Amino acid sequence: MKIHLGGGVRLFVDVEGAGLVPDGPRMREKPTLICMHGGPGFDHAAFKPAFNQLADLAQIVYYDHRGHGRSDARPPSEWTLDTWADDIVRLSDALGIEKPIVLGQSFGGFVAQRYIARHPGHAGKVILSSTSHHMGLERKLAAFERRGGPEARALAQAFWSRPTVETFDAYWAGVRHLYNTQPAADAEAGSRTLVNLDILLHFVSGEKQDLGLLQGLDKAQCPVLVMVGEEDPVCPLEDALEIHDALPERWRQLARFPGVGHGAWRDDPAAAFAVLRRFIAE
């Protein structure tokens, strides 16, 4: 379904699980988990079907960021972190969600970090999964070289320094398999993803180059879980540790996953979903 946010903007939204469930003589309200996908330029499909195992604990709201996937196309002037972060509030208002648990995966974690800075009192909890706070090019290049040698480093440097259709195609074909340490449990997941390469190239060549998201994390007013695979080349461990350290000590939690790459729930689903279930249920 498409949800109107105002101003002619509509986001594609899908919901899994009931929000109200029978519990003896009453109806119990489950928390709402809002899942924000990576990219930019991708859609929410990568969360499915893995995240349906959390539907007993929370009502899950998946959506495609403004301009992405099945959401309405929007002009490049709206392809900004501020706009995408504010959309979490707009979407929550449109759906009547109070104190959501907001999960940002990769680029979705960029959005979630900006959301913390701009709307620190809005969330009930935040999960920052496999994400970074800056470009951190040298750190990325070193990680790709460790995982795939000099050729992987060269492909990564070409794309992240000079993002074009050509450099991205070569990068994706040459290093995508290095993002994770285990074979994909769902080999067809990638083919189900809708991709808008224009948004990806716009963001990487623009806002991504000077990204600085640590400022504002100290405003957090709710529990924030940072999840990181220790072998993630594109959002390295060091980035996650710096994000964790920038959060208020009383609110921050860290979950490290040895031998795991980008998206702990892909490479070690048992461990990752156990962490998620504990955090949601706390």
From TrEMBL:
Signal peptide from the UniProt entry: none
Molecular function GO labels: aminopeptidase activity
GO CC annotation, single: membrane
Protein name, UniProt field: Prolyl aminopeptidase
InterPro entries, per the entry: AB_hydrolase_1, AB_hydrolase_fold, AB_hydrolase_sf, Peptidase_S33
Domain AB hydrolase-1: from-to ranges: 31-263
PANTHER family: HYDROLASE, PUTATIVE (AFU_ORTHOLOGUE AFUA_2G14860)-RELATED, MONOACYLGLYCEROL LIPASE
Record-linked Pfam families: Abhydrolase_1 (PF00561)
Any GO BP: proteolysis
Lineage: Bacteria, Pseudomonadati, Pseudomonadota, Betaproteobacteria, Burkholderiales
Keyword line: Aminopeptidase, Hydrolase, Protease
Protein family per UniProt: Belongs to the peptidase S33 family.
Source species: Roseateles aquatilis
